[in-house]
Write a structure and sequence with these properties.
- The protein is α+β, with helices and mostly antiparallel strands.
- The chain has two domains: 37 residues, no CATH class; 122 residues, Nucleoside Triphosphate Pyrophosphohydrolase (Alpha-Beta Complex).
- The protein is built from three helices and nine strands.
- The strands form two sheets. Strands 4, 5, 6, 7, 8 and 9 form a six-stranded mixed β-sheet that branches.
- Zinc ion binds next to loops.
Length: 166
């Protein structure tokens, strides 16, 4: 979403032409262009060590399964965030992981980078955010992930590409 006010000084922004970019909001007080600001998060299609099952979580207060996910910290890479979030939420380390695709979550102005992460172990030590979790075969996975969500799009395209069992 385009900015109306300067995030640094609060001055109202006006569009100014910038070569190769077009009309971009500009702060006359700072003398600088202000590009869109949004958050970045990672979400993980989390596989058992043998890659046969997928792990979904329920967070407290929610009655549906979602993917393990979290915001990328300032100064952190997306790759670091994948490993940190899984270590924090699930208490397990990642054997290998790779990027799948991304999607924009309008409600929280967040770009979500979806990865596949293969866990070192099925023995989890989940943290306070996690109410419960379940392991799902590909067939069960599409029926159990939160409907009409970005997570369900990620899971469906992952399964359609036959990436679960290698
Ligand atoms: Zn400014």
């Amino acid at each position: 979403m385009e900015l109306d006010f300067c995030p640094v000084c609060g001055t109202k922004l006006y569009k100014r032409y910038l070569e190769h970019e077009g009309e971009i909001p500009y702060c006359e007080s700072c003398g600088d262009f202000r590009f869109p600001i949004f958050s970045t998060a990672v979400s993980m299609i989390t596989l058992s060590p043998d890659r046969s099952k997928m792990l979904f979580l329920k967070q407290y207060g929610n009655n549906f399964f979602v993917l393990p996910a979290g915001y990328v910290n300032k100064g952190e890479s997306a790759e670091q965030a994948v490993k940190r979030e899984i270590a924090e939420e699930l208490g397990v380390s990642v054997k290998e992981f790779w990027f799948n695709r991304s999607g924009y979550f309008e409600k929280s102005q967040t770009l979500i980078l979806n990865f596949t992460a293969v866990l070192e172990s099925e023995e989890l030590n989940t943290n306070y955010e996690v109410d419960s979790f379940g392991w799902f075969s590909p067939d069960e996975a599409v029926l159990n992930i939160k409907p009409n969500s970005l997570a369900s799009q990620f899971v469906k395209s992952f399964i359609d590409n036959n990436e679960v069992i290698k």
